[in-house]
Specification:
Layout (H helix, E strand, L loop, with lengths): L2 H12 L2 H19 L9 H12 L5
């Protein structure tokens, strides 16, 4: 098994169930994008949400 897969497997067993579930979901998204050869053009949901959060912040005075 690849070292990355081993590390991921160990972490998924260590993390809280909610954290492991979120990680699994995001990793599946990356796998699907890679299968479609879209990693270079797709933005992660987290990055997109970060931009939306910045837009929604009240202006600093």
């Amino acid at each position: 098994m690849d070292i990355l897969a081993e590390k991921l497997d160990a972490r998924l067993r260590e993390w809280r169930p909610e954290t492991a579930a979120e990680a699994r979901e995001r990793i599946m998204e990356v796998i699907e994008l890679a299968d479609q050869d879209l990693l270079d053009v797709a933005r992660s949901r987290a990055a997109e949400q970060g931009v939306l959060d910045l837009i929604d912040e009240p202006p600093a005075r």
